[in-house]
Amino acid sequence: MSLGLQGSKSLGGFVLLLLLAAISAVAGASPAPKSSNKTSIGEGGGGSIYDHLRQYGLPIGLLPKGITEYSLDDSSGEFRVFLPQPCRAKFENQVRYDFNVSGTLTFGRIADLSDVSAQELFLWFPVKGIRVDVPSSGLIYFDVGVVDKQFSLSLFESPPDCTALDPSDPSSPSSSSNSPSELKLKEEERDKNEGKKKKKQKKKIIKKKKRIEGIIDILVSN
Are 52 and 105 in contact (CB under 8 A)? Predict the structure, then answer.
């Protein structure tokens, strides 16, 4: 009889250990918070976007004057700059900038560039990337998809003046482009949706914990 009692106790203890392990697993399943990446906005806190270009070994004249705001993720190099209106700057060729320009910074290179285009003859080509292979060569390359357009680095020593585009001009950026205020609204909406998802996940985890704790209480009382 005592052997049977001891066996039931040991079995109960084993089940209790399993339930405790389950609680630990549920607690560990809670969504890990996203690592907070340093973001610089505006002209303060970490310097201007031109300072960051210089730190990445790029000429500051790649971006025009008139930038009202910018964001930069230091961990990934992803950046976005905001302009009051689409505009056009003159180098050897004309370069057009939309309301917002984004890309990814690595040393001597901008990848995944968007909302910048360069004119060649009478055509406009999107600039997909910019790179400086060898600084001492004095050359910089614009990736326009078909070929790499070569320019002199000296053309980009300082941020150029940027002339506002005429909205009625058919070569102007599409009216579907997002203005800075529209982008902010989208980001705020996305943050709200992420917050709602996290709350739902937390509620599910709390419910599971309570169920397991209830079972443990029953076993312990028995």
Answer: yes
Nearest to 57 by CA among 112, 117, 106, 128: 106
| 39 DSSP 8-state letter | B
Q: In angstroms, rounded to a whole number, what is the distance separating the alpha carbons of residues 162 and 148?
A: 23
pTM, two decimals, is: 0.58
With a CB cutoff of 8 Å and minimum separation 6, the contacts of 47 are 40
Q: How far apart are CA 94 and CA 97, in angstroms?
A: 10
**What is the structure's pLDDT at 119?**
85
Per DSSP, 76 falls in state T
Angle at 83 between CA 80 and CA 86, to 5 degrees: 115
Q: What is the pLDDT of residue 222?
A: 66
Q: In the predicted model, what is the mean pLDDT of residues 78-104?
A: 92
Number of C-beta neighbours around residue 68 at 10 A:
11
Contact 69, 83 (CB under 8 A): no
| Banded pLDDT at 214 (limits 50, 70, 90) | confident
